[in-house]
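Lecture 7 notes: from sequence to structure.

We start with a single chain of 478 residues. Read the sequence below before looking at the structure.
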Amino acid sequence: MADGPRADFSDTPWWLSLIKAVGIFVYLLLSVLVVIWAERRIIGRMQQRPGPNRFGPFGILQTLADGLKLIMKEDVTPKNADKVMFILAPLMVGSLAFVSFGIIPMGGEVSMFGHTTPLQLTDMPAATLLVLAVAGVGAYGFVLAGWSSGSTYPLLGGLRSTAQVVSYEIAMGLSLVAVFLYAGSMSTSEIVAAQDRWWFAFPLFFSFVVYVITMVGETNRLPFDLAEGEGELGGGFHTEYSSMKFGMFFLGEYINMFTVSALATTLFLGGFHAPWPIGAINDGMFSEGWWGLLWFTGKMWLFIFFYVWLRGSLPRVRYDQFMKLGWKVLIPLSLVWVVAVILMRAADPSIGYFGEGRLPVIITTAVVILGVVGGITLLMARLEKKEQQTLEDRRPPVEVDPFAGGFPVPPLPGQTLVEPTTRAPAVTAAKPVAGSAAGATTTVVADPGATEPNPTEPNPAEPDSAESHDTDGEDTRG
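Now the structure, written as C-alpha cells:
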C-alpha cells in the first residue's frame, strides 16, 4: 500500500491546467537559458579562464545571443535527405523533452485564482513509467535524424546513440523498481509523500548511484557523450542539421537534463520536502505551499551542477568500455539488488529493511545475495580472461621483417623492425664463353641466395669439354 495520499486535482479546471502547462514551459526555458550560461562560467573557472563575460552583465545574455545566431543561420537540407523525417526528428526530440515534466510534483497544494491545486500538472497510478516511455520514444528521434540525413556519419551516430539509450534505460528502469517496492506505488505524488521522514537515497543508496550513472548516459553528456564525439563522428546524428533544427536537439538535451534531475529529486531526495532540520520546524511548515518549489528547484540544480562538474573533470570513455559498464555491470547488479529489496521488504514491510523475529529471512537474503554476486563475479572474470586471451592471440607480432612479403611494409605502432640480412653478391672468375669473340670474357654474378658450387664435383648443367670439343675447336658431336 502507498504510504501517502495521491495529489488531488478535483478543484483544478481545465484552464488552470493549461496555465500550469504554460508555466512549466516557461520555467524550463528560463532554466535552460540560465544553465547554459552557468555551465560555461563554471567550466571556465575550473579551467582558469573567465568564460562568457562580454554580452550583458557577467555575460548573462550570451545564451540569448547564441539563440539569435541559430535563428539567423541558413537552414540547409541535404539533397539526399528524406525531408519529412528530416524535419520530424528534431521536433520529436525537442517536444517530447517537455512531456515527462508534467508528472513531476514541484510543490504542495497552493491557491491559484481561487482554486486549491497541487503544483503538478497531472498524476496517475503509473506516472513514473511515463518518463521511461517518453525516453524510449525519444530514441526514435535519434534514429530518424541519422537515417533521414542520407549520410554515413549521421547514420553511425544515430545507431550508437540508440544503442546507448536502450542499454542504459534497462538499468535505469531496474533502479526505479526498488523505489516502487519501497514506496508501494508508482505515483510520483505518493512516492514524495512516502519520503516525509527518510529520503530514499539513504536506504536505497545503490539504486540512487545506479540511477545517477544511467541518467548521465541517458542524456549523452560527458563522460558518456559518445554519440556526439566530434573526434569520432563529426557531430553524431545531427551532423547535417543547422539553424533551429539543430537548436531543437540542443534544447532537447538540456531539457532532458532537467527532466532526469527532477525525477531523481522526486524519487530519491524527497521531492519538494524541505531538508532536515528545516523540514522539522513547525511540523513541516516550510515544505507546504510555494515553499516546496524553492526546495525542489534547489535539489534539482544540485544534479545540474553535478552534470557540469563531470563535464569539466572527466574525459570521454571508450565506447566498448561504456557498453560493457551498462550490460555487464549495472544490469546484473541491479537485478541482484531488486531481488535483495524484495526479500528485505518481505521481512517486515512496516519497518523497512529487517523485521523483528525474521532472522531466517535475513540469513537467506544474505546467502542469496552473496551467492548471486559471487557467481556473477566469477563469470565476468572468466569472460574477461577469455577476452584478454583472444586479444593476445590477435595481437600482431612485436618484431616484423619489412621485406618479408617482397616489398617494404611500414611497421604498426609498437612494432620494431628486424634488420634484414645483407650480403654482398658473390662474383665468380671471368671465363671465356664459346662462340664469343677472341679475348672476350663474360662475368657471371652468382645469386646471393644460391649456394656456392663445389669445385670438386662436375657441374651437370655444363657438358664435358673432352666430349664436346676437339683440339681445333670444332664440334665433334654427332
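Strands lie at 109-112, 115-118, 399-400, 416-417. Keep this in mind for problem set 3.
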